Amino acid sequence: MNTLCEANGSFAINLLKILCQNSPSENVCYSPMSISSALAMVLLGAKGDTAVQITQALGFNTEEDIHQGFQGLLSNLNKSNKKYLLRMANRLFAGNTYEFLSTFRESCLQLYHSEMEQLSFVKAPEESRKHINMWVSKQTEGKIPELLPGGSIDSETRLVLVNALYFKGRWQKQFHKESTSEMPFKINQWYFERNFVKE
Question: Which domain holds residue 38?
Answer without folding.
Answer: 1-77
